[in-house]
Amino acid sequence: MAITIKSEREIEIMREAGRILAIVHEEMEKALKPGMSTWDINKIGENVIRSYGCKPSFLGYNGYPAAICVSVNDEVVHGIPNKEHIIREGDIVSLDAGVIYNGYQSDAARTHACGKISAEAQKLIDVTRQSFYEGIKFAKEGNHLHDISAAIEDYVVAHGFSCVRDLVGHGIGREMHEDPQIPNYRQKKKGPRLEAGMTLAIEPMVNAGRYDVCWLDDDWTVVTEDESLSAHYENTILITKGEPEILSIRK
Ligand code: MF3
Ligand code: CO
């Protein structure tokens, strides 16, 4: 499938989807406390999504059973919320959420500290978030997609961590997953040329140890193979002729 270029009307809708998703993340961050379950945080996120008249895009996607992915410590992504899984002080918690507003999608993820965490865990969270910003320095018309991939990996590796290779970012619009796929590590080819009007979900997943991951028996939860900590940071962005516009943060 070709990479879709959004019209000004579509972009306006995706801006609103992104604005709402940013609020969903703010509310989940405020609510996150030791002693609550991963199911509790999912419910809070789902309620905020619905309060804005949006649909949680993850719920039912390929059979996924919840609105939010909640991935704790060595869980990389796609952790399934569970009433029995209590979040404890010292955990790092990745929250990934998607909304559909007026037929258009927004997708974003954040990793938070629960209470006091180790210096190493805080560095992992900070490097993961910053790697997104390093990547999008190259996200503008005329550059190539894999300029973003290389910038993310270079930053992460320079700080002693590794980028997950088995999962990638993606185009986004009417569908959650559109072309192109966006790897978070250096590629041999340049990738497609970026054009104004492309909307992309860029989402580095960064491991404190090696980049290898495996899937749990629930067929969803992705964990680090070496059991090291992992963090995730994602935003939906718009490519323009100049600086990219981050749609899923509050301005
Ligand atoms: N944000 C994710 C992604 O980019 C997670 C979606 S998985 C789902 O692919 F099944 F939970 F929807
Ligand atoms: Co995504």
Which descriptors apply to this entry?
251 residues; alpha+beta; Creatine Amidinohydrolase; four-stranded antiparallel β-sheet; 4 helices; 15 strands; binds cobalt (II) ion
Structure description:
With 251 residues, the protein is of the alpha+beta class. The chain has a single domain, classed as Alpha-Beta Complex (Creatine Amidinohydrolase). 28% of the residues lie in helices and 25% in strands. The chain contains 4 helices and 15 strands. The protein has helices at 8-31, 38-51, 119-136, 145-158; strands at 55-56, 68-72, 75-77, 92-101, 104-113, 162-163, 169-171, 178-182, 199-202, 205-207, 213-215, 222-224, 230-232, 235-238, 245-246. A 5-stranded antiparallel beta sheet has the order 8-7-9-14-15. Strands 1, 2, 4 and 5 form a 4-stranded antiparallel beta sheet that branches. β14 and β15 form a beta hairpin. The longest helix has 24 residues, at 8-31. It is globular and about 45 Å long. The mean pLDDT is 98. The structure holds 2-amino-4-trifluoromethylsulfanyl-butyric acid and cobalt (II) ion (CO).
Quick gist of this model?
The chain has 251 residues and is of the alpha+beta class. The chain has helices spanning 8-31, 38-51, 119-136, 145-158, and strands at 55-56, 68-72, 75-77, 92-101, 104-113, 162-163, 169-171, 178-182, 199-202, 205-207, 213-215, 222-224, 230-232, 235-238, 245-246. A hairpin with a 6-residue loop joins strand 11 and strand 12 (222-224).
- The total count of strands amounts to 15
Structural class: alpha+beta
Shape: globular
Count of folded domains: 1
